Amino acid sequence: MTSSLSDVHSPLPEPATGEGSRSPTPDLAAAFDPDRFRDGAVDIVGRLTTYLADRSVRGLDLLDPAVLLKAARELMTPERQRIADFDADRVSRIVDLYTETGIPVYSPGYMGRQFSGVVPLAGLIDLVGSVVNQPSSFYEAGQLPSVAERLMAEELNRFIGWDRDRFAMVTTSGGSLANLTALLAARNRAFPQIWTRGTGGMPGPPAIAVSEEAHYSVTRAAGVLGIGERQIIRLPVDRAGRIRPDLAGPALAEALRRGLRPFCLVASAGTTSTGAFDPLEELAAVADRYGLWLHVDGAHGASLLLSDLHRDRLRGIERADSLTWDAHKMLFMPAPCTLLFYRDGSAARDAFRQRASYVFDEEPDVYSAYDSAAKNLECTKRPMIMPLWTVWSVYGPALFAQKIDRLCATARQAYRMLAAEPDFAVAHEPESNIVCFRYVPEGLEPGSAHRLQLEIRNRIRGGGRFFISKVDLDGTAALRVVVMNHLIDADHLAMLIDEIRDIGQRVLRAGAATRNDQRNGSHS
Length: 524
Ligand SMILES: *Cc1c(COP(=O)(O)O)cnc(C)c1O
Description:
By secondary structure, the chain is of the alpha/beta class. It contains 17 helices and 11 strands.
């Protein structure tokens, strides 16, 4: 028992005689044994190869967490005292449980979310990154990742089109963090005194203007920055979910009248719900007029810049101040891999105005010029650029462009097929690879469309053949397909439509039966 502070701070106990100089125990050494690594790698790569080769049409097998918890617990060694004997079978079973319980992202049945099966080479490079463990943020800890960030920034900026000598890019762990970081940079640019003094004593509260359709990470970032929900100016959108530039000006003027001090306008290049692209050119003009920083949340859709066919959706991007770009979405990388671009690179450092002698050098040198720590929130950060840079280096940009074109074409095909079905209603024309729609057969009782879509979505998930998502549009649930797999073709879409109709009909019949039972007073 500890009885006084001096005990807490007592020096480390002396090692048993000679222990420090003795060799590590064989068990300790064995856990780091390269041969054991190779044997494990061969087994695991074999299992992953089988996993990748499975092209069957499958959805998510959603387990009761209590069941999975039990299965997982059984895989944990009971050994607590010694280093447990290596059990190759235990590792294999963990890998199998891992692969079997995930959303099958390589299956054509998976059409539900914005992440995807990765270019397999990216996974191998991620493995390298995990073994050599070169966390980035500082050049000395991650030399190649730091250089690769520079190269990848130059490559992608060709598609954005900003001044090569002025722009900057930093990787962040996800688009949410990129949005937060960009808002911070924007706020510090507009109100440099806040970093030291806080918001106290300001003549009016800082405010941001965002689309009604903005991703929740944007308003969450505003919360983190202390902006406060009342200082979030909601910009109205049109039927397709795009900010209406003609209504943005009046909304801002009204905010100014209320004494707010807007500093940033956030546009979406691909909204999460429907993949709608805000009109960047027109919004840049609004931002100019009101002296606002224009941040483009392109987490989902910035990748369309790589496509000759779809680049035009981001017309005006050259006038933005910052851009969030998730490579773990439409560049098919392992998550997370996000790139945050600034048109004016000096703004990147404005986000964080700090000194820390243990990491930041007072005198910048050729090495620290490659550090990203002054520009990102993370200190230790995955070298997330390496899978992207390697795939880009090996295959070139056409791999991405081709896949993006194919996904958008498939979404358009889904739109055409759904529009041709009399019992389906498509909610919008796809602007990228997302299509939302509803199953609304003739005679559907008014007001029951919402529940029907939710029920269909859950039963489809339960059925295990397809994985789609749902989203509320104008207050009514819709089914949402995100095409992330280039293997999805018209046959798969037809299968999905049939399955939705089948399930929908069954739900409606069951509902009618229940109502009849209730009317007849039956309680069975
Ligand atoms: C996915 C998404 C985000 C959040 O990005 P994460 O990488 O999931 O943190 C932000 N904005 C939009 C438009 C998105 O689609």
